[in-house]
Design goal:
Layout: H1 3-29, H2 35-65, H3 72-81, H4 85-129
Length: about 150
């Protein structure tokens, strides 16, 4: 398979992944998170990432088989010689965009987890406050000052 065709496949898969990351981000910013949708998106992302890795491995094999160095410069030179440097640059730009989208989703997930933990902590404080203390009062009841002496 030609280098140009492999780069086209990589861009197609990266575009699919970017679209899924956009859907994931939309799910994460909703007030009520649809966990089933997130699980389905995770599965779809995993499949695309696997296909992307396979395409990258084939591209890498072609590059090495053609005698180019196994580094970034070799990849760029192979693309230039095959007349598809613009396709390589577009692929790299799309990969950077996917990386940024993935970071945004990771940050949103971290914020969601932090928010959920704070809510759980508050629920535990409220639940524990209703437990009776040794004097028979709950922690929610204010203690009274004994003014009789």
């Amino acid at each position: 398979m030609s280098l140009a065709r492999l780069l086209d496949q990589q861009r197609e898969r990266l575009a699919e992944l970017l679209a899924l990351l956009g859907e994931e981000q939309e799910c994460l910013v909703q007030g009520q998170v649809d966990s089933e949708a997130l699980v389905a998106l995770a599965g779809q992302k995993s499949e695309i990432q696997q296909r992307l890795a396979e395409t990258e491995a084939r591209r890498h094999q072609v590059q090495c088989r053609l005698g180019y160095p196994d580094d970034r410069e070799g990849t760029l030179q192979a693309a230039r010689d095959a007349g598809c440097e613009a396709a390589w640059q577009a692929t790299m730009a799309l990969a950077r965009e996917v990386s940024r989208a993935n970071l945004r989703c990771g940050e949103l997930l971290a914020l969601r987890m932090e928010h959920n933990q704070r809510m759980l902590d508050q629920i535990h404080r409220i639940a524990n406050a209703s437990v009776y203390q040794p004097d028979g009062r709950t922690r929610l009841q204010p203690s009274r000052l004994n003014v009789s002496a």
